[in-house]
């Protein structure tokens, strides 16, 4: 989370880095909160969540706009819809999935 926020504050850092890190955070958040889920299910839920947040940016309701104007609301809900963000979410989620699949060993706690 801190890397994503810092990526927005450092000049000359491409904005898509923060979007990819957001997707990575969401993927590992699902893996942490819903431990028994299969990795592929976490991948799908992460994409649905990220796409849902991005599509929600098309909704312009007063109370939602007020939340987006706060710092935390801006970081979580974003500001405006961009097609490029959807691509960044796919890349970030796939990257997190591949890291999880290749490098993170899960252990069976029942054995």
Describe the structure using short key phrases.
mainly alpha; 111 residues; globular; 0% strand
Report on the architecture of this protein:
The chain has one domain (2-102). The chain has 111 residues and is mostly helical. The model has no long low-confidence stretch (mean pLDDT 85). It contains 6 helices and no strands. It is globular.
Overall shape: it is globular
- Helical stretch count? 6
Mean pLDDT: 85
Question: Could you spell the SSE succession in H and E letters?
Answer: HHHHHH
Main sheet record: none
Q: How big a fraction of the residues is strand?
A: under 5%
Q: Output the radius of gyration.
A: 15 Å
Brief sketch in words of this structure:
By secondary structure, the protein is an all-alpha fold. Helices cover 72% and strands 0% of the residues.
Topology:
Layout: H1 2-9, H2 15-33, H3 39-56, H4 62-68, H5 71-77, H6 83-103
Helix pairs in contact: 1-2, 2-3, 2-6, 3-6
């Amino acid at each position: 989370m801190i890397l994503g926020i810092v990526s927005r504050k450092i000049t000359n850092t491409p904005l898509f880095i923060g979007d990819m890190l957001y997707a990575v955070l969401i993927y590992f958040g699902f893996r942490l909160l819903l431990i028994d889920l299969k990795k592929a299910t976490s991948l799908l839920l992460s994409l649905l969540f990220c796409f849902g947040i991005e599509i929600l940016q098309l909704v312009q309701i007063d109370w939602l706009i007020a939340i987006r104007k706060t710092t935390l609301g801006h970081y979580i809900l974003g500001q405006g819809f961009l097609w490029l963000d959807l691509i960044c979410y796919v890349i970030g989620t796939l990257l997190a999935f591949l890291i999880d699949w290749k490098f993170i060993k899960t252990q069976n706690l029942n054995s």
